[in-house]
């Protein structure tokens, strides 16, 4: 366990070269009937045509990934919602007491620390799988291109134009990717609402209204605790929701990838049967990325937070806080202590989460752009030019504003500004000798800022998810039409031979 933790500490932040290749579809009898899927299945030799996600070699990593999945489950999400409703109803008899207000702050502090670690790990797991997917698609399409060139050159297949290609239909596979179930659709609608720029603006309007009541309430600790309770409850909800919606969208993406893998493998198998090609699918290399020193430091911190070492450090912090309870007689300062720590750390985590969402998302976009380029290059081999495909058509003001705000908040210098701000809060609290007001200074502004960044993080997730769904749909439809093209050409040739 200790060796694994130390290993995680040393390897955090590394972005080394990655290499993947798609499993090669083997054919025992290349002279078999190309257009017969049943017969094609019989001649395949132990082929892997099912999408399999990456599996980590270490048992502890696999356990932690399983816990991360559970954190985004329906059970966990609804359990947290029920807990928030119970807290809200308890406010009827106990709402005037400061202990009631601090209770949600402490609950949010612990949940915040745990979910920040889980969300980082969730992001990296999704990123690693998407890189593997894009590499395997590129690996297999390279083989498709090679075999199609061979068949076109030898006259086995004839070129067609874009209009003819667009009209092709495939009967052996689903005409579209799987539909979302009602709960995934509901989660998507809620995600779109929370991530909308109007919601973000509404959030800041509420903050300014609260500030406007400051003079009326005498800028008291109770007035400060009002917004602390509100933002704490909001943060608990949004973190649980974000983990949940990510898991639901990941589950839906896996269904889509299974359909793509089936079609892609079938296309490769049929091409190998008619060509007799036995060359393995090539290995695709993704070199390490060039990063600035600041980005390298951000990546190190993010890796550490989402690793076994980060989870171990989190456990130690919570144990130390609990152990300090008897020493501080479980007074208000002790209750605020974990909130102060979580407020400062959570503020930095909010900046970092938005940064890695943007940086990793941009790199994923680059890799899927390569897949699209390879696909179009393959279609050009059979004479197909520009296609009418799905595109993201939303160019509204709110969409452009969301993109722009996300880019600004994810910039590496925004993280540097956040670190400077944290030092400013620490200095301010130290000047106040870490009194209740001083600790609230390290609780409330960070909580407000982190709530804002979580809303922006949901926006980033929505934008990235929309791009990926368009990519997956287009990739799937191209493979269906290529299958139809190969089958129809073979059927035409067979009919001519019979005549």
Could you explain how this protein is built, in words?
By secondary structure, this protein is mostly helical. The protein has one domain. Helices cover 75% and strands 1% of the residues. The chain contains 16 helices and two strands. It has helices at residues 2-11, 37-43, 59-71, 74-94, 98-153, 162-167, 182-194, 197-212, 221-275, 293-306, 308-327, 332-381, 397-410, 412-431, 436-441, 444-498, and strands at 18-20, 284-286. Strands 1-2 form a two-stranded antiparallel ribbon. The radius of gyration is 27 Å and the shape is elongated. It starts with a helix and ends with a helix.
Strands in their spatial order, largest beta sheet: 1-2
Q: Helical stretch count?
A: 16
**What does the radius of gyration come to?**
27 Å
- Structural class of the helices, strands and pairings? mainly alpha
- Multimeric status of the protein: single chain
Q: Report mean pLDDT, rounded to a whole number.
A: 85
Percent range of helical residues: over 70%
Topology pattern, helix = H, strand = E: HEHHHHHHHHEHHHHHHH
- Percent of residues in beta strands: under 5%
Query: What are the low-pLDDT stretches, counting only 5+ consecutive residues below 50?
Result: 37-44, 494-499
Shape: elongated
Largest sheet descriptor: 2 strands, antiparallel
What is the distance, rounded to the nearest whole angstrom, between the alpha carbons of the first and last residues? 72 Å
The number of strands is 2
Number of domains: 1
């Amino acid at each position: 366990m200790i060796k694994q933790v130390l290993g995680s500490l040393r390897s955090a932040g590394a972005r080394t070269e990655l290499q993947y290749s798609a499993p090669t579809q083997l054919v025992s009898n290349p002279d078999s009937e190309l257009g017969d899927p049943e017969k094609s299945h019989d001649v395949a030799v132990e082929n892997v045509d099912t999408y399999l996600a990456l599996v980590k070699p270490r048992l502890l990593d696999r356990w932690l990934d399983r816990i991360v999945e559970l954190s985004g489950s329906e059970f966990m999400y609804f359990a947290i919602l029920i807990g928030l409703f119970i807290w809200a109803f308890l406010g009827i008899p106990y709402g005037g007491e400061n202990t009631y207000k601090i209770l949600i702050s402490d609950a949010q502090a612990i949940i915040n620390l745990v979910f920040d670690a889980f969300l980082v790990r969730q992001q990296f797991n999704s990123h690693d799988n998407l890189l593997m997917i894009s590499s395997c698609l590129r690996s297999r399409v390279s083989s498709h291109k090679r075999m199609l060139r061979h068949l076109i050159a030898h006259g086995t297949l004839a070129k067609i134009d874009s209009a003819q290609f667009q009209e092709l239909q495939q009967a052996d596979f689903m005409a579209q990717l799987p539909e979302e179930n009602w709960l995934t659709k509901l989660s998507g609608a809620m995600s779109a609402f929370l991530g909308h720029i109007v919601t973000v603006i509404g959030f800041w309007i509420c903050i300014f209204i609260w500030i406007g009541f400051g003079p009326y309430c005498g800028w008291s600790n109770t007035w400060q605790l009002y917004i602390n309770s509100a933002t704490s409850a909001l943060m608990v909800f949004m973190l649980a929701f974000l983990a949940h919606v990510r898991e639901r969208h990941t589950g839906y993406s896996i269904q889509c990838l299974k359909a793509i893998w089936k079609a892609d493998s079938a296309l490769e198998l049929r091409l190998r049967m008619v060509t007799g090609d036995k060359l393995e699918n090539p290995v695709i290399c993704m070199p390490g990325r060039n990063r600035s020193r600041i980005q390298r430091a951000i990546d190190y911190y993010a890796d550490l937070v989402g690793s076994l070492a980060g989870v171990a450090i989190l456990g130690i912090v919570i144990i130390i806080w609990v152990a300090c309870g008897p020493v501080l007689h479980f007074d208000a300062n002790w209750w605020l202590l974990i909130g102060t720590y979580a407020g400062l750390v959570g503020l930095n985590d909010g900046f970092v989460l938005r940064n890695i969402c943007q940086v990793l998302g941009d790199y994923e976009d680059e890799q899927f752009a390569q897949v699209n380029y390879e696909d179009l290059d393959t279609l050009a081999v059979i004479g197909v030019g520009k296609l009418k495909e799905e595109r993201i058509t939303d160019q509204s003001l709110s969409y452009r504003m969301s993109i722009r705000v996300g880019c600004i908040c994810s910039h590496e210098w925004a993280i540097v500004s956040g670190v400077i701000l944290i030092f400013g809060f620490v200095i301010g609290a130290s000047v106040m000798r870490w009194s209740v007001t001083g600790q609230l200074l390290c609780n409330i502004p960070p909580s407000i800022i982190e709530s804002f960044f979580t809303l922006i993080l949901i926006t980033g997730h929505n934008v990235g998810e929309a791009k990926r769904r368009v990519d997956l749909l287009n990739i799937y439809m191209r493979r269906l039409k290529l299958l139809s093209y190969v089958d129809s050409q073979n059927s035409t040739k067979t009919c001519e031979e019979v005549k």
